[in-house]
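We emphasize that the prediction below concerns an isolated chain of 225 residues; any contacts that depend on oligomerization or on bound cofactors are therefore not represented. The input was used exactly as deposited, without trimming of termini.
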Amino acid sequence: MDIVKALLKTSIVGAGATVATFALLTRKNEFVPVSPLTDELLKSKHYAKLNPNNNPITHDLCIRRVPLSKIKPQLRENPDALTRAFCAGVWSGNGYRIQRHLLQRKYHDPLTAHQLWTPEELGGSQYDVGTQITDHFEVLEKTPETICVRAGDSPLKKDVRPSDGLFEMSARVKGDVVEFGLKSVFFQGLGKAEGEPMPPWVEIAHRMYTKVLMETAIWNCMGSE
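Result of the prediction step, given as a token string:
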């Protein structure tokens, strides 16, 4: 695994991971069916408020199961700490590094200086409700097992948006394994949509990116320390 991590750090952070590296790195991360009829995220007050016209959605769930014995001891019996560490790994890890740099160059200014920008800030935050991340995400809800953020535009824009979404990070202990999850719901909030929010090729790229975020986030939770 150390070799795989080294490959990722030298490839995805630089010119982009090769197909072989990507396949090796994310081989244990899988997308599973998620029903819009039973998904609690789609029953939430946040979804109802942000998608008032019930426009079509792009909806997916990526999971990864890790033996509990591979998780840092201090996180194994502390659901809040485990979920926070996973969330922090998403935003402070190498998977988000390129996007983090691009957003910082474009949007970091006096109006957004209070948000989380650096790997140190992103790695140390508690991700309480209201936390704003790189002028692109805002924490809407936090439970012991989940942290849900609004995505798609600047958190300074509070109203219904043309492009919007919810992104939920979860960590659930199930017996002797931890099931990590990244769930996405994207939609057009403003007006009546004429079709899906993402063309097929964008959805494919989104899923590949999600797998990388999943893998690098989990590294923040693993260890024998």
